[in-house]
Amino acid sequence: LGFGSDFDGTDNLLAGIDDVTIYPELISFLKKRNYKDTTIRKICGENCLRVLNAVL
Fold it and tell me: Where are the domains of the chain?
């Protein structure tokens, strides 16, 4: 699971999420929902890096 930032070529965006400038608010929302910092870091990129390192 992770945030994506490729908004080109799709018309199916979630309401209010038009570009990456909303990401700090998403992170604040996760913190308010008591997500652990380690989980937030994984969602923000560590999961993607882990998979890329495993397959490359």
Answer: 20-55
